[in-house]
Structures are given as C-alpha cells and as structure tokens.
C-alpha cells in the first residue's frame, strides 16, 4: 500500500481528516486555475489540518511519503478531461480504490451537494447522490431543471449558479449546452463538477472509464480500444479520448455510421499528441484486435427533426455473440449506458461484459472526487 492510501485508510479508521496537499494553513482554498483560466475562493470553511509529520506520528505511520505539493493537485473544479495530468489521474484512482471498502462514512458530514440536471439522467445523478450520502453529506437535487426550475422562466445559468452556491458547498451540473459547465465554474465560488454538457464532455464518466479499463485489463499503456457508435455526439468518447491520450502506445479504432463519425477536433488532438488512430467500417475486424470494445448508443435526441438520419444510423453496429466470438479472452465490452439494442442481452452473461461493473466504478470515482474537492487529498 502506498503512503497516500495508508494515510487515507488510517484517517478513516481513526476518524480524522487526511492531510491536505496545500501548504497553507488557511481555512479557505483557491479554486485551481485550469485550462479554461478561471479562479475563485470556496466559501465553505474547510477543516483545519496538522502538518504531515505530526499527523503521521499521531497515526503511528512511519516513513509514509505524501504527494508532491504542486499546482496539478490543486483540484478546484472538474470540467474537462484535458485538465488532468497522468500523475493526477493516478492519485485520483488511488483514492477511488480506498473508497471501494467504504460502505458508510462521516467524512463529509455537514457538507451539502446541489445536483442541477437540465437533461435526463439515472446513473450519473444517482451515483453522485449515493456517493455524497455514503460519505455522510446531504443532497439538494433538481432532476429536470430545464422544465421545472427557474430556467423555464428565463433565468440565466449564471444567476442560477449564483443563487444555488448560497445553499450548497459543491454543484454537480448536467446541461444541454456545450460549454455550460465552463460558464458555471467561472461564475461559482464553490467547486463545480461537469456531469455532461450537451455534446461537449463528460469528464467523470471518462475518469470511471479509465479506472475500469485499468481494473479490467490491468494496464493502460499499450492498449487498443475500439470506440463504436455515435462518436460525433458522444461526450463520453470525446472525454475518454482526451484522457487515454495521456498514456503510452495507445491506439484508437473509430467504428461508426458516416453521419456520426468522430469529429476532427478529437482526431487532430490525438495526432498532435502522437496517438495513433484509425477509422474502420468493420466492427468484427476491430473487435478481434482490441483490448476494449467501447460501444455507445446512437443518440436520437441529438438529431433534432432528422429522423431519417437517426434511423439510418441506428442498428448498424451491434455487439452480439458473433462479436464476442472474435474478441480476445482478456478483452472487455464497455458501454456508458443506457443501451437500446446496440448490445444484445445475450452478451450480459459473458464475463467480458464489463458495463455494469463500469457503472459501479462510477460510485467510487465520484466518492473520491467529492472528498478531494471538499476536504482535500
């Protein structure tokens, strides 16, 4: 067990707060200055902490190394996949692994999370709310904010955020407009987590996806991954591409109907990072080469009135028993869910069907993020 895991484990056992990374003893913390360039102060008074040396001695932990203090660990918001470096990902995953053994905790007792969902959600909203409650926090929720919040009266997103931050300590938001999460983070003085912004990004889904791949395959460097389905509108595959580009010798295969091909911005980004990618129309061939077949739903809601385009794209690529037959024994099938008919039910019985384990991993990743953002590492 590493020093970080040991300190976190001991802090849970003895009921004290783990050490923060920030060198300052202030009860306020700066929101990190990320790639979209905003900063601000969190209003919520944070728990005071002792120095690493004193805390380690109190917990009888000897020679336990701590994370390096640095800007990359000052996590203020979770908005886009590009904001994470590889060592930060490793640190988040380490905290998430610690969360797997926690059924109930009180480390976030006294904290309130507001969930603002302007689009439908089951797994993301419930996993965030479950994560907060399992750590002892409370939840304020608006499930269909587009229709039943003041947005229906014409209130701006900025005014909504300024109001809600007066009630809560952290905001988790899903919105139908790309870029809405950046606007919210620029407005808020408390942490904001992007739970999906239209066809833009879904960074916490990407985090749990990478975490799942590592748990299932045993590595991230050198993997081959096939992204299948709606790649033009799929915010999950966009965020996943950004994260996996941090690893060495990764290759992407893009398999999709022409109308929902992966957009050039992702292809250009991968090329700029020296990441190999290839487009293919042959799912069977790609499945035989890959460690991960990442299937996605053709998203009807992104087609507007063009039902003809939707019907032409839907059902073209289906993961079924024939696909499983050509896959390698160690490979897995993943899906961000919900699914329609793009993965046959018969696949569920195969141990390589990882999508329900993938969904469970979302709980641990979101527990980790809430802890890190609210009380530190």
Automatic annotation (TrEMBL):
Its EC number is 2.1.3.2. One of its GO terms (biological process) is amino acid metabolic process. It comes from the Eukaryota. Signal peptide: none annotated. It catalyses: carbamoyl phosphate + L-aspartate = N-carbamoyl-L-aspartate + phosphate + H(+). Residues 221-372 form the Aspartate/ornithine carbamoyltransferase Asp/Orn-binding domain. The keyword RNA-binding does not apply. The keyword Nucleotidyltransferase does not apply. It is found in: Plastid, Chloroplast. Residues 77-214 form the Aspartate/ornithine carbamoyltransferase carbamoyl-P binding domain. Pathway: Pyrimidine metabolism; UMP biosynthesis via de novo pathway; (S)-dihydroorotate from bicarbonate: step 2/3. Keywords: Allosteric enzyme, Plastid, Pyrimidine biosynthesis, Transferase, Transit peptide. Pfam families: OTCace, OTCace_N. GO terms for molecular function: amino acid binding; aspartate carbamoyltransferase activity. One of its GO terms (cellular component) is chloroplast. Homotrimer. Belongs to the aspartate/ornithine carbamoyltransferase superfamily. ATCase family. Catalyzes the condensation of carbamoyl phosphate and aspartate to form carbamoyl aspartate and inorganic phosphate, the committed step in the de novo pyrimidine nucleotide biosynthesis pathway. This is aspartate carbamoyltransferase. It comes from Lupinus angustifolius.
